[in-house]
Amino acid sequence: MKRIPALLLISILLFSCFLDAKILFASELAADGMEYIEVRNEKNERVKFSRLILGTDHLAQEDWTDPIPRKITEQSVKNLFDEAVRLGINLFDTSPIYVGDVEYKLGNWITAYRQENPGKKIYTLSKGGFPFDLFWAKKLPEGENSFCLQEMLKAKNIMAEGYTDLPNSTDGTYASRLFGSKEQIAARVGEELGHTIKNLQGNPDVYLMHRDDGDFINFEPIKRSQNSVKTIMEALSSKDIRNKYTFLGWSNWKPHRITRSLALAKKQSDLAKPVFNSPYFSLFEMSERAIHAGGVQVTHEEMMDESFLKGIKIMPYSPLGGISILDRPEPCWDNARKAARKKYAQGDPYWRNVYHSIFTCANEERYNRLVKFTKDFNNKHKTSYTADQMANAYALAHKRTDFLVIGPITIEQLRRTVASLKLAKMLTKDDLDFLYYGNE
Q1: In DSSP terms, which residues pair with 49 in a beta bridge?
Q2: 280 by DSSP, 3-state: which?
Q3: Considering the entire predicted model, what is its pTM?
Q4: Model confidence pLDDT, tens digit, residues 328-370
Q5: Strand, helix or coil for residue 110
Q6: Domains of the chain by range and CATH?
């Protein structure tokens, strides 16, 4: 099985501690209805995508959180995809480096589904721009690499003077794929994109650069200037790359770099216009240590501001919607933290970041507030929503949340997450402020 850094749909997934409260799926789902938003590129091509985007990051991962691996079958994956379409989801998020060859599995399912349902529109979103994982490569990638990275590798005795081999590489050591000339970037991204096209048996409809230019050692960024946004955009707009996707976007890019990309696309008609921005956004914020190398989050106040990053659709990846590290016996938070601490102590590279990023005092306070708020809300409205649904609704209810990437791995979780659309419409600004700030 491939080892990957923690990527899109970082699933610090929050399920309800009210395990005896069961949502009335049939009635709630029938009343919900999927929502759709139109996007348009520089060629005036238009598509209406479902507001909820099905992420596949952990869908085929058997050994993610629990000591006893869950059984994954081709049929169980297919059943979840089928149910997503039935519920109105038409955009599926994947990547060539996600666990369990899930991009390949998605490609097989889509091909079969389209043959059986020729009039049904199903779209794919994949990602590139991942930095090279030097822990596994044990060698710097061919071509030009940043001087600062090479000097730090030497200083930490990971690479010897005059060599490109990395015999002592550690977890979280990455070399940027978006560094260098536009020709080099196009070649490096083109190699990734080739894997995706083969897996999906066709071009992705949406293509995100899932990292900006940056290098890392032990998950910590190397301090250096970044490659220009213009150079990166010129590479992604080159003919060999541009004709293999319909819509371009960014994931884990900082706001000022996104603003720059929009300005360049407006000024230069030969550049692909970025349509999507996918940052981390949750009631449970990342600490100073991100959940994965290069993770970028947006804040409650930013997402409540209608003018924030105007001109691009924001599609946060949600830490909710699938199997939960908080799906533990009471007290949920304490037991989840103990389980994460155990994985951290065992040296699991994913949980080394997640433990310190998510299990903070501030997030514990927000979790306790969320549980109480959900209980009070249900008593007031005669509903039976769960805490994970409330946290998803919290993200959806923000003014700048156009789309939300979700990560359910069972049909029950999928239905629960889709029902959050209705709940989001019931939340007020005061509700969102309370969930984030408390009684300040």
Answers
A1: 37
A2: strand
A3: 0.90
A4: 778 888 988 888 898 889 888 778 888 899 999 999 999 999 9
A5: helix
A6: 25-131+178-437 (3.20.20.100), 132-175 (no CATH)
